[in-house]
Amino acid sequence: MHQPNILFIGIGGIGMSAIARYFITKGTQVFGYDKTPSSLTTQLIAEGADIIFDEHWPDVFQHLNPNNCMVIYTPAIPSQNNLLKHAEKHGFVMLKRSEALGLITRSEKSIGVAGTHGKSTTSTMLAYLLSNTNHGCNAFLGAISTNFNSNFVTADQASWTVVEADEFDRSFLQLSPFASIVTTVDPDHLDVYTNEEKFVEGFRQYTMKIDPQGVLVLHHGIKLPSICRQVTYSLDTNEAHYFGYDLSETEAGISFSLRTPTETYHHVVIGIHGRHNAENAIGCLALCQELGIDVSKVLPFFSYFKGIKRRFEIIYQHEKLTYIDDYAHHPTEIRCLIQSVREMFPNKKITGVFQPHLFTRTQDFGDGFALELSKLDRLILLPIYPARELPINGIDSTWLLSKIKLGQKMLVQPSELLQQLRSVDEGVLLTIGAGDIDRFVDSIHDLLLAKEVSS
User: Mean pLDDT in the chain?
Assistant: First the structure.
């Protein structure tokens, strides 16, 4: 991977952009294509990448050839993409994103963070803690860290490289981690795995790849094989090796006590909210201790942890109304989100704006989505975001809406959303989903601010 030029097809993706940033820091000339401009592509251009938004091979790429350029692409790019077809036809070396990441980390001591839910927050927490040790760390993250203002972290003397181990497309099987956390193994991506058993088998194959001298940190209750030692963590049972208790929400964030196999720590505070984030933190602290890091030295930094973009991110807060944006796109994630909001705002009505992500996921988990979304007080449902998929006959947001047992529910087009939100004056407003719903966040914030000023 020593080519002087690399072309990233789908460079605006969160995982792709982290790898692009890695190569930029190494002095490689980075070129890229993405379908539409975004804040990430704007930042990458400012950092030195040359990015286009037209998939036809342009003049700016004319000097690129198989002898001086490699192509890295994301599976989210349709196979009929013209740039992809051009690179294949002309014999460029082509790597999937996961293959490139696997090669980068193979020569380093890497730590994987896997799981259906919580990967991005947990890997970012872990990178943040390790960055506050003597040697720092490298990290390839699946979201933008608020503390680092990036999804890529680097340090000259880093002892560890943190990698978000993504199960989609079996990408995590390209990794060779020394250690790993596994947060959850709830079935997802059944368009790739076809059934629950094959999904779990993917995780079994992943955990068997962990170095025999390393460690696997499992959420208590998950059963996976490994040839390394295992420890467990939990908030729900003191049978776990690492156990959190006395949980409470404070203005500064969530607070809990932690019992490890050797020590007890009281009043651990992390600078973000949510019970699920306390559990993510316990997993990170467990791994740190198992790697020989003095937990007492990194704990004080945790209160300054500010989380990641689009994970329980408080966008706007006023006396009567709080607006939170979240990436939740699986029924379990939506359940955790609404539960956390109810605990933080027990007497306030919750309005949720949900954009389903993928036709297959909506079809596979329609009943689960309906059950969890029915726990809102009001639902505004958007059309399904298709991403890489073609429509499935009979599976759309109208079908999903019919399953939701809620008096106040409606289906609106994206162009109608802001008008509908003008009537939201109090309680908690949530935008939920993994598609392009985040493009509304700034507009919704400006709307709420304007209403506040005019009232």
Answer: 93
User: Sign (positive/negative) of CA torsion 265, 269, 274, 279?
Assistant: negative
Tell whether the torsion through CA atoms of 339, 340, 343 and 347 is positive or negative: negative
The total number of residues written for the chain in this structure: 455
Does 71 score more than 70 pLDDT?
Answer: yes
Nearest to 171 by CA among 278, 119, 277, 99: 99
Locate all alpha helices (DSSP H) within 107-211, ordered by sequence: 119-131, 190-193, 196-207
What would the pLDDT profile of 401-433 be if each residue is shown by its tens digit? 999 999 999 999 999 999 999 999 999 999 999
Looking up residue 125, the CATH number of its domain turns out to be 3.40.1190.10
Residue labelled with tokens 């006023």: 318
> What is this structure's pTM?
0.82
Beta strand pairing call for 137-145 and 215-219: unpaired
* 8-state DSSP, 36: S
Residues 295, 368 share a domain: no
Nearest to 430 by CA among 316, 271, 290, 304: 316
Please count the other Cβ atoms lying within 10 Å of the Cβ belonging to residue 168. 16
Chain segment 200-231, per-residue pLDDT in tens: 999 999 999 999 999 999 999 999 999 999 99
**Look-up of token digits 């919704």:** 444
Sign of CA dihedral 220, 128, 161, 265: negative
How far, rounded to the nearest angstrom, does the alpha carbon of residue 48 sit from its chain's CA centroid?
25
Cβ-contact 336, 412 below 8 angstroms: no
Q: What angle do CA 311, 126, 250 make, to 5 degrees?
A: 55
Query: 53 to each of 8, 58, 86, 88, 445, how far by Cα in Å?
Result: 12, 10, 16, 19, 28
Is residue 300 located within the same domain as residue 323? no
> Any idea which residue has 């996961």 for tokens?
98
- 361: containing domain: 313-454
Q: What is the CATH classification number for the domain harbouring 321?
A: 3.90.190.20
Side chain identity at residue 196, one-letter code:
E
427 contacts 348 by C-beta, under 8 angstroms: yes
The pair phi, psi for residue 261, each rounded to 5°, is -60, -15
In the chain, how many domains are there? 3
The answer to whether 114 and 183 are in contact (CB under 8 A) is yes
Residue 102 lies in a domain: no
Tokens of 351: 């309005």
**348 residue type, one letter:** K
CA dihedral 289, 308, 164, 200 (to 10 degrees): 90
Distance of CA 369 to the CA centre of its chain: 19
Question: Is 101 part of a structural domain of the chain?
Answer: no
With beta carbons less than 8 A apart as the criterion, state whether 111 and 163 touch: yes
